[in-house]
Each structure stands twice: as C-alpha cells, then as structure tokens.
Amino acid sequence: MLPELPGVLSGEQVRATVAAIAVEQEADGALPWFRGGRLDPWDMVEAAMALDVGGEHARARAAYRWLARRQRPDGSWAAEYRGGVEVSPAAESNHAGYLAVGVWHSWLLTGDEELVVTLWPVVRRGLDLVTRMQLPGGAVGWALRPDGTADDTALLTGNASLFQALRCGVALAALAGRPQPDWELAVADLGTALRTRPDAFADRSRYSMDWYYPVLGGAVTGAAADARLATGWDRFVVPGLGARCVADRPWVTGAETCELALALAAAGRPDAALEQVAAMQHLRADDGSYWTGYVYPDDARWPVERTTWTAAAVVLAADALSGASAASGLFTDPGALSEAGTEASQETAGWLPGGAGRGRP
C-alpha cells in the first residue's frame, strides 16, 4: 500500500514521486542526484529507501548492490561519484555508516534474507570503520585523513545520523546472529555525547539540520526532543513555506522540511509534522519530482535542480506519517528499533552463513 496524506498527498501523487526517482536511476543501479549529476552514498541510500516504500524493490536492491561493489577495502566510499567514477577521494564517516539504515529498512519492508546475507559484510566493514573513527568522548570524526586516521572534527548532523546507523547495525547483527559489542559500546558513547556534550561538535548551529537531527536520529527523545524543536522553531521555520536550510538565509529547502517533519513525528507532534509536509508542496513539479529549494524574497527556485533525495524525503515523511509500510516507524519510533532487533535475534538468528556466533567473524 502506498502512503497517502489526505489533503496533502494522494497515493497516486506519491506513486508519481517514486517514479520520478526511478527514472533518474542508471542502468547499473546508481542513483545520482539527477541523471548525469553527482552521486553520494548517503543520499543514494535515502533514494533507495523511497524506492522500496514505493514497491520498486528490484531498483532498491540494485542501488544497494551498486554501493556494495564500490566499497573500499577500509569500509569507506568516495564522497562523490560521477558516472560511476570517484570524483572526490574523501571518505566521510556518515557515508560509511548509512547503508545499515537502508538495509534494515529494506528488511522491515521485504524480509529479503538474500539481500541481508549479501550486504551484511558491507554493512559490517562500514560500521567497523565508523567505530575506528570514534574520538575520545564519544563523537565520531567526520572524515578520514590521507594517512587513514580520523579527523578530530566532529559534525553534529553526521553524528546524529550515525547514531541511527549504529543502532540499525546492532539490529542487523542480532538478526544475523553475529553480535557486535564494539558497535553497542560506540552507540552508547555517541548517544551520551549527542545529549550532553555540545562542545564535542563543531559549531554549525546556523544549519537547521544541527537543530533537528539529534531528534530525527533518535538520540534525543521525549520531553527533551520537544524542547529542542521548540527552541529553534522561530529561527528556522517559515510559516507556509517550510524550513530554512540556514538560519541567516531566506532559503527554504524541501528535504530539510520533510526531515523536520520526521523529527516532529518522533517527538509526538504528528499534526505539526503534517503541516510542514503540506507547507513544502510548493516545490512539487508536475511530474512528481521536487525542486531542491526556494529563495522566497526573489520568488526563485534555487538551485535549479530537482534532486532524487528531496523527492525521497517526501516519500519517507509520507510513509512515516501515514503508517503505510512495515518500515514506517523507523524514523518516528526510536524505541521500536531496539525491540525489533531483540525480536529478530530470538526468531531468526542463525540463518546467516556460518550460523550464530559471538563477536565479529
């Protein structure tokens, strides 16, 4: 069943958005921002998740296998690809971790054991790299230096995403019967840093993602989540248009608005979340794709591009708010992730080749 939000998005409109993502996919499975444009691993996973929500499971699997083929031996990916070729040699920690979220999301939707078996070693290498990049105090360095060590700068948004990625990895490890205690320790320390050590992260507070991502990633919950979102509301939200990407710029962006909606839903504010998804529909194009952003004083789309990851954020927000799919709670119910991992370990552990084990293979 396709998600729909009455009065905001119909099922057919969501179907058109999924199709707009699919048409940009390359024959080898790559999902760039748009056909012929750049590709980065994090945004590609987000687009693949939206394809899965829309029932395009073969396309999502092809995207994940594209990433598997291009993973480096150290568990990283290039920060940017064009035409399947590495453009930027940089390796970012949030890119290394995010496949775990996509694979767990796919498992929730499809129960595809073959895909999990295929991608488990890829997820493991990526998250092992993340744990090696963890700094004293719990934060994770944002990138690898040329000598293979972690940069000592940590970015709040990327770390909040890694909190979710590590938790998904722990759930996958339970499913596979391969406990990863290093990941469990890493996510506990990271969660503490995200909640109590703001000085562990570079000051990028002018960016809206640093405002809502600790809630979206599941590190900040309950009353603390609601309080955090309330604190930045007037600074970032433009009534009727959506959320600013940057506090001091008159520019609202679709992906950030839909991610804010996911964070609001996670904080128990579904009505406010729905209002944000409705507000950003001015970015919708006739074919179901979405413009990346809008500079409202100039009445101008900017940049002049319709990105797969913006469309994907819309689909994931619609799914979360409608509860349409088996994966709809991934972003909005942080507690369910731990419960799902426990159930997986009890019911299906041991089907990964080699059987259940303790520690890393």
UniProtKB/TrEMBL annotation:
<feature type="region of interest" description="Disordered">
    <location>
        <begin position="337"/>
        <end position="361"/>
    </location>
</feature>
<dbReference type="InterPro" id="IPR012341">
    <property type="entry name" value="6hp_glycosidase-like_sf"/>
</dbReference>
<dbReference type="GO" id="GO:0005975">
    <property type="term" value="P:carbohydrate metabolic process"/>
</dbReference>
<dbReference type="InterPro" id="IPR008928">
    <property type="entry name" value="6-hairpin_glycosidase_sf"/>
</dbReference>
<protein>
    <recommendedName>
        <fullName>Prenyltransferase and squalene oxidase repeat-containing protein</fullName>
    </recommendedName>
</protein>
<feature type="compositionally biased region" description="Gly residues">
    <location>
        <begin position="352"/>
        <end position="361"/>
    </location>
</feature>
